[in-house]
Records
---
Amino acid sequence: MSISKRLFSRAAAGLAPAALALALLPGLMLSAQNQKPSPRQQAQARARARAKWLQARARYLAQLRARERREAQLAPAPPMGWNSWNHFHRRITGKIVRQIADAMVSSGMKAAGYTYINIDDTWEGQRDAQGNIQPNAKFGDMKALADYVHSKGLKLGIYSSPGPFTCAGYAGSYRHEAQDARTYAAWGIDYLKYDWCSASRVYKLQQLPQVYLKMYRALKATGRPIVFSLCEYGLLDPWHFGPFVGGNLWRTTGDINDTWKRMSAIGFNQSYLAPYAAPGHWNDPDMLEVGNGGMTDTEYRTHMSLWAMLAAPLIAGNDLRHMSRAALAILTNRDVIAVDQDRLGRQGYRVWRSGRKLDQDREIWMKPLAGGAVAVALFNRGSKAAAITVHWSQLGLQPPLRARNLWTHKNLRLPRPTFTATVPSHGVILLRVKE
Ligand code: GLA
């Protein structure tokens, strides 16, 4: 009974053949003479139905495994790149995208692992007579733009909505899903952010997974590997259905902005999502604001550390053409990036917090890393510097420990059962620890 229940629930997501459930129903198997079948005939019918069911299940699991492999190859670690929205909003143009690609290389961002150049909303123009989407005049020839980005050893991302309009009111992919997927593939697009927006006008919320599955299938049918980024702001708990609709990453919240208040409210609220991150599938607490000017360097270091602890996609959102040394140093800190990109693919989580008043909170987070190491972050969300003490036994660690401070790049030996450090207001101490 529990098996058929599971089948039905998957069928609701549009993934399992409905015939499986039918084959399981006893009583459907009638004898040729339409007489009551003998017990022996009934047993044979049940055995046949079961064999059929097992075959179908094996096929289904093989498909799932193939998809898991495909997705793990597409996004083995949280995607790293840049996106136009946080800094440029509607002001993005094809020319700026080219300049950003240049800056990605010349600044050292590419060498640090940033790969995707993602165009967000407002690139869209009209559809032609055949319904093919055209870029608007600010972008011109998309294929040429993709060729340019590829010539730098980078990848190009684009943006659309399953609804008739994007959030900024441009053309969405509604009723053009397969056609748009083919267009993106023909241009050489490598990443699609698919943003719910006006889809709520044409679909019920419960249809959301199928709507995303439709675009996933369209992308897959093109044969081009395209990272699939779900953006529905956490509306329907995408961490539950994301992997089943081909999502490589899914937004877990509404939009970030360049303030300590918003960044910290999002970042520190992600601990409960730790079980859902894995190679191929990542929780996405939205793009980085580092370098956009609304936070201090200390706060940006906390932002970067928190995103690394969360195994979050590292999608820079600043103007790479004009970066302060501090912003560049934060974004390209190899030690911190290594925590984010660690091949174990586990998200970090909170292990201790000082109290319930947010402005006084001190928090300790840990993230298991490959090879038995652990990243440990001491965060001070309060408005004054504060001492934070880690009890290693609470993290399952046995001193003496070897540690590296990932912002000062100094190695430490930690022989005692506890470690106490003074952490500046809104600051962090980030360690990589090993027994
Ligand atoms: C939504 C998304 C943002 C951005 C804008 C563009 O708000 O959450 O990340 O893509 O749309 O219009």
---
Amino acid sequence: PLVSMKEMLEKAKQEKYAVGQFNINNLEYTQAILLAAQEEKSPVILGVSEGAAKYIGGFKLIVLMVQELMNEYKITVPVAIHLDHGSSFEKCVQAMYAGFTSVMIDGSHYPLAENIALTKRVVDVAHSLGISVEAELGRIAGQEDDLVVTELEKAYAIPAECEQLIRATGVDCFAPALGSVHGPYKGKPQLGFDRMQEIKDLTNVPLVLHGGSGIPLEDIQNAISLGTAKINVNTENQIVSTKRVREVLEQKPDVYDTRKFMGPARDAIKETVIGKMREFGSSNKA
Ligand code: G3H
Ligand code: ZN
């Protein structure tokens, strides 16, 4: 069923695993991720960036596409459709109106008081509709679609501010920027586990780890033990699917049927998502 992230993440936090948010960029991603979740008996969050929504054809089409694929594939595991890095109150409302079951309001580039006020407005609307909300503090370096944060701009979240935002807004889960990066990592990730521990102790909400592509298993397990219940992955699926397309086209230069390379790309995404679900411990938790 289509559900919010609320129960999914509370259960994950309690039972010490993380639910994957896998971003959908087109039809094949959506197919691959839903099939992976069903096969693994895992809850799943379909992440939709504003850029991806624009590319696909709007929030409404995405909801219809997901609903119809869930019927077609007889999906029984819990699925959330979540706006990733919502940039404004208006965008969040548009996604909710279209049928998204969850939204992120990313006010991380605003001063704390403004971030809190904006997040609270979104929470008030969302909670009246049974929709879950994620917020962010600190700044995650790297690039995702149009969201670019340079090395100079990146910032680790401050635990006391995290506590303040969570208390003031009542968000369902929270993403503290603690050194993770959107896009490929240059060198080993340097995650701020000390602060993660502090935030866990100060607050009680499930934590979210953005930039989940390319994080070593040991760090994943550490993050989960410190209250992380949601891990976002996009880049890794993009890398494996594009690699598969290149391989097919190089091996068979005469191919022109789109399905002959998009099919294998879809398989690559499905395999990768299954691998992540096992690493995150969400397999057989649906
Ligand atoms: O919000 C989406 C994620 O944080 C994705 O990060 O593309 O580095 O896996 P990633
Ligand atoms: Zn992110």
